[in-house]
Specification:
single chain; alpha/beta; Nucleotidyltransferase, domain 5; 2 domains; five-stranded mixed beta sheet; 7 helices; disordered C terminus
Length: 225
């Protein structure tokens, strides 16, 4: 199966063209997309990547896309692109949580807690049971720093992993062990997505939506007016 993976959740993003089946996985090529250019560069970057490898859109067997948490604008661009392509091509979509990818990227199995700095003195926290390259979600939530530390200190038998140095510093100051890894790329999103596509763990174009975990400023302000 030829798959296209898209991540527009961060300050910069990426796309990956990959292929695989139940027994194998191969990244054909990954391409980075600069932050602030997603709306203008994403579709041309996809077209260029396909053309470079002698493929066309109809050759894609499925899509993998990061659904959140992350940039509200970035996520909307990536999800809209996938929704449009999947609808026209009648191909399946697998969504991948950035926290899920972070937990899997740690490379260990068992109880894994994945954390990302959400700004505003808050933390995105995901708790997972990780096994054989897949993460079964227990909970994804948004916590204040103090709540985050209480959660981790509460005795959960989980390894804490993050790609944000601020989380490492805060955890160390509170004497909580944490492991810093690189932010997951679209290549890992492709690998996770392939597993989901083959297992039938997909969403329809109608149901495809962002997993913001936190509401946008526009939504928050609308509640106060």
């Amino acid at each position: 199966m030829l798959i296209l993976a898209i991540d527009t959740s961060g300050k910069s993003g990426g796309i990956t063209l990959a292929e695989g089946d139940q027994r194998s996985f191969r990244v054909i090529e990954s391409a980075a997309i600069e932050g602030g250019t997603f709306s203008a560069q994403l579709v041309p970057a996809i077209a260029a990547l396909l053309e470079e490898h002698g493929a066309v859109a109809k050759d894609i067997g499925g899509f993998a896309v990061v659904s959140g948490p992350g940039s509200f604008t970035g996520l909307r661009v990536g999800l809209s692109a996938v929704k449009g392509l999947a609808e026209v091509l009648k191909k399946p979509i697998a969504t991948v949580s950035l926290l899920e990818a972070l937990a899997i990227s740690f490379g260990k199995e068992g109880k894994i807690a994945a954390a990302l700095d959400a700004g505003r003195a808050q933390i995105f926290l995901g708790l997972y049971d990780v096994y054989d390259g897949a993460a079964d979600p227990v909970r994804e939530t948004l916590l204040a720093w103090s709540e985050f530390l209480e959660e981790i200190k509460a005795g959960h038998p989980a390894s804490l992993v993050t790609s944000d140095h601020a989380v490492i510093q805060y955890a160390l100051a509170a004497e909580v062990a944490a492991h810093e890894v690189a932010r997951p790329g679209s290549d890992l999103v492709a690998r996770i997505g392939l597993k989901k596509l083959l297992a039938g763990d997909t969403v329809s174009t109608e149901a495809l939506d962002a997993n913001y975990i936190r509401r946008s400023d526009a939504e928050l302000f609308s509640k106060t007016t």
